[in-house]
Design brief:
This protein has about 290 residues and is α/β, with parallel strands linked by helices. The chain has a single domain, classed as Aldolase class I (TIM Barrel, Alpha-Beta Barrel). It contains 12 helices and 9 strands. Helix 2 runs parallel beside helix 4 and helix 11 runs antiparallel to helix 12. The longest helix has 21 residues.
Length: about 290
């Protein structure tokens, strides 16, 4: 991957640094990171701000802000329902970017926009990148953008100091893992199993081998998501990955809550228990030679 042009170094240093800096801190502490996925706008953008801040106060190391989309094909039923509620509340990509600005004014937590490409295309790639960076976002994960089609997408986002995060799956061949790794910055997101998002009772038995295979192609931190919902999952991941991504379990708490305040409290309690398990686990990076 080519380095950003010299003229962009000052723009990118702070925002790219936020994700990298947090992973360095986690590695120094021999601690697994916790990435909390939260659908923006469920039940409202104002409520999401409270939920995000509660999650960060409880120990979330990074936040993935999900941009609601009408056809979320990679998402399971819990996040699909969250996306539907957010769209019904009037949430738009522009509104989510403004939410990033509000959160950034109150927190230094790394913020990743988790989206499908259609809303970005509707806004315009350059306009989106400029607005997201100006608001204080750190990276973007567009689930349906493939590395093979991402040259303009990557160049535009990285010119504005935004990391481009891509997904690797159990079905990815070695050649494809190499391509995904080359296109990624910030961290690489490994999907624990084929299918859509959703809480599960157990982690797939082939997950350790998948992460080991992925590490052959990248020196970036590896985050594992899809099906991560219990403290025991997080503890196990401490010996495998650099971060765990939890989404459906968090949005299930939001769905059950009667008020935004109740949602924030419930999410905070869940994140606190997951982060406690992360701190008690052993960071994969702590076992690596310098």
């Amino acid at each position: 991957m080519s380095e950003p042009a010299a003229s962009q170094t000052a723009i990118s240093a702070e925002r790219v640094g936020r994700i990298a800096r947090r992973f360095r801190e986690l590695a120094d502490a021999s601690e697994l990171g916790l990435v909390a996925y939260i659908t923006a706008g469920d039940p409202s953008l104002a409520a999401t701000e409270k939920i995000v801040l509660a999650a960060t106060d409880a120990g979330a190391d990074m936040i993935e802000l999900g941009v609601p989309f009408s056809d979320p094909v990679a998402d399971g039923p819990t996040i699909q329902r969250a996306s539907d509620r957010a769209l019904r509340s009037g949430t738009t990509l522009a509104g989510v970017i403004e939410l990033v600005r509000k959160i950034r004014a109150r927190s230094d937590v790394p913020l990743i926009l988790f989206t499908y490409f259609n809303p970005v295309l509707q806004m315009g790639l350059e306009k989106f990148a400029k607005a997201a960076a100006s608001a204080g976002a750190d990276g973007v994960l567009a689930t349906d953008v493939t590395p093979e089609e991402a040259e303009e997408y990557r160049a535009t986002l990285q010119a504005h100091g935004l990391d481009t995060i891509f997904l690797a799956a159990p079905t990815s061949t070695d050649a494809r893992l190499a391509r995904i790794a080359q296109a990624s910055s910030g961290f690489l997101y490994v999907i624990s199993r084929a299918g859509v998002t959703g809480a599960r009772e157990a982690l797939p038995p082939g997950l350790p081998a998948l992460v080991r295979r992925t590490r052959k192609f990248t020196s970036l931190p590896i985050a594992v998501g899809f099906g991560i919902s219990l403290p025991t999952h997080v503890t196990v991941l401490g010996g495998i990955a650099d971060a765990a991504v939890v989404g459906s379990a968090i949005m299930a708490e939001v769905e059950k809550a009667a008020t935004p305040e109740e949602a924030a409290s419930a999410v905070g309690a869940l994140v606190r228990s997951l982060k406690s398990a992360a701190r008690n686990g052993v960071s994969r990076r702590s076992n690596e030679a310098p």
